[in-house]
Specification:
With about 400 residues, the chain is mainly alpha-helical. Helices cover about 80% and strands about 0% of the residues. Bound molecules: aspartic acid. Aspartic acid binds next to helix 17 and helix 18.
Length: about 400
């Protein structure tokens, strides 16, 4: 019998994970089988993420340095750079607008009272993160001894150093071609290893989803159903309509074509809730299935994974309005503009790890004087919503590289 393709195996793994997780949920956490099942899925899921993280840093480092160095050869660097940033800014703006408009229209949270969540709030201590401090911290984290950044796995600092090294390689020219060759070979090797890790993806994804679904707090989901519906609805609208439409209008590629090439990465993002852990898979899909040139993907995708987060931006804006409704505050237009700007900064600053958006959310709430403790209400449902917003975050990066490839070539 012929084995199903890897794509098919990943999809089947995801469906299996959700079904088994649901079954475990029905049996209850006390059940012996559920306990061993959750232990095993915890082990397998973590192993899969560890393997992705193992390859992540060498991959980011080489792909950006090589990407920049090769772009210069096509004298495209400036165009690619500008198009990438403009595309990211436009799509994030659309995402936040969607979140704000839908929240103003449907007013999730207006029927609820914050007192209902007193228990959750009491046991929560918010980290103070005022905007200026957040900004200072963000800037400070950009520049780091590269060896520390590599060893700590700090993606943002590695991106920045690799950018600088790439530019130095360009400026230095032929004199450094040996180093460039080595980096290029290292990049090819890391992509080969990513291919091996992907063989485990169906199991890793099934394990992660079993754990996620089995440990959901259904009562909380019911209470917050309206908010969840608004967030899920707008995130899907952005991911299924807006981004594919932009892709179609600019490149002529259909949504089905995109889904076929991108699904490995989208499903991995859904299961891991981490753009960073998914990055090796995103790179693989973008270069191998969606046929974006490595020098463009090598630049757009890693940068996108750290700064371009449409799903997170939309969520931060919608959640701020939800909490305002909950505490009975009517945010004025100016205040909503402040939410808009801080949600954008929060999404750029959030690292691509699970629930990162929750940490930067504090800043958005504080910018308009909302109580940061209210985050305690959102925490129990965050892992669930994180799945979808991370998927859209990763989708934005892949569509971004297709768009950039098209526009940068067009004007070449
Ligand atoms: N988990 C998201 C990501 O990795 C970030 C967030 O929490 O919104 O893209």
């Amino acid at each position: 019998m012929k084995m199903p393709s890897l794509n098919m195996q990943i999809l089947l793994g995801a469906i299996f994970g959700v079904l088994v997780g649901w079954y475990f949920h029905g049996l209850g956490a006390e059940h012996q089988m559920v306990q061993s099942g959750l232990y095993a899925s915890g082990l397998v899921g973590t192993l899969f993420i560890d393997l992705l993280k193992m390859i992540l840093i060498p991959l980011v480092f080489c792909s950006i340095a090589v990407g920049i160095a090769n772009l210069r050869q096509h004298s495209q660097m400036h165009r690619v750079w500008v198009t990438t940033l403009v595309f990211f800014a436009i799509t994030t703006t659309i995402a936040i607008t969607l979140g704000l408009v839908a929240s103003n229209y449907f007013k999730p949270g207006s029927g609820l009272q914050i007192a209902m969540f007193a228990d959750a709030i009491q046991s929560f201590e918010a980290q103070q993160l005022p905007l200026p401090e957040f900004f200072a911290q963000f800037l400070h984290s950009l520049f780091m001894n590269p060896f520390t950044a590599l060893a700590k796995g700090d993606v943002m600092a590695v991106v920045v150093f690799a950018l600088i090294l790439g530019i130095a390689l360009v400026v230095g020219g032929d004199r450094y071609k040996n180093l460039l060759n080595i980096l290029q070979e290292l990049l090819e090797l890391t992509m080969r290893i990513v291919g091996w890790v992907m063989v485990l993806a169906p199991f890793g994804i099934a394990a992660l989803l079993i754990k996620l679904v089995a440990t959901q707090d259904i009562a909380m989901l019911g209470t917050l159903a309206k908010f969840i519906t608004v967030v899920v609805g707008t995130t899907l609208l952005h991911g299924i309509v807006i981004l594919p439409l932009l892709l179609y209008l600019i490149t002529g590629k259909t949504p089905l074509w995109f889904w076929r090439g991108a699904r490995e990465a989208l499903i991995t993002a859904f299961a891991t809730s981490s753009s960073s852990a998914t990055l090796p898979v995103t790179m693989r899909c973008t270069t191998q299935h969606l046929h974006v040139k490595p020098e463009i993907a090598g630049f757009v995708v890693p940068i996108g994974a750290t700064v371009n987060m449409d799903g997170t931006a939309l969520y931060e804006a919608a959640a701020a309005l939800f909490i305002a409704n909950l505490v009975g505050v009517d945010l004025s237009l100016t205040q909503q503009m402040i939410v808009f700007v801080t949600a954008m900064i929060a999404a750029i600053g959030a690292p691509g790890i699970p629930s990162a958006g929750m940490v930067t959310m504090v800043m958005v709430l504080q910018s308009v004087g909302l109580p940061a403790e209210a985050i305690a209400i959102l925490l129990p449902i965050d892992r669930l919503l994180d799945t979808l917003r991370t998927t859209v975050n990763v989708q934005g990066d892949m569509i971004g590289s297709l768009v950039v490839q098209r526009l940068a070539n067009k004007t070449a």
